[in-house]
Amino acid sequence: DGGITQSPKYLFRKEGQNVTLSCEQNLNHDAMYWYRQDPGQGLRLIYYSQIVNDFQKGDIAEGYSVSREKKESFPLTVTSAQKNPTAFYLCASSIDLRGLYGYTFGSGTRLTVV
Amino acid sequence: AQKITQTQPGMFVQEKEAVTLDCTYDTSDPSYGLFWYKQPSSGEMIFLIYQGSYDQQNATEGRYSLNFQKARKSANLVISASQLGDSAMYFCAMREEYGGYQKVTFGTGTKLQVIP
Asked: What are the b/e assignments for A21-49, b being 16+ CB within 10 Å?
């Protein structure tokens, strides 16, 4: 079945460490996105990519980095510069640039700083 | 200013009744899209329904319908015949053109609880 796979489901990070969240899709979608969700809040856009080797900062990109070397993969690195990284992270993709059919989301990664 | 406003943090509805979840939006983009997503406690986001700004008719998908009032900039979700499985967070979202790219902004969500 086609879909988006995020791994790991739970991730614990020590202060000062960089961690990378994986996002892989087999839907042949061009556009991919990373969102952050804090408890009781909506989703905020971190980064998005509409084609391979191109990506744009979203509303809260500071302390995060991404790469898009393959169409299927859009990993997110949470760097030590992100002061409050504990949150739920969702990866999404869309079939076309207008997102007319909505986004397909992964099941998320819950990141906790310990 | 908030792009997407959902003023109801929580709602209760009796099973088999209809419920309306409110959403207002703000944009100067003449071509935009509006979405509703459902997020169960498991965390995944499920796409429910889409309305384009130029669509003449309100969108419907099964028990979901979108009450689109363009002049009032509102895009309320109506769920008919509520079921226990409808208990979840519901997010309204808007797609806009932004610097040549498409960008989607989400509201803060409404928690719906269906009562047996």
From this structure: bebbbeeebebbbbbbbeeeebbbbbbbb
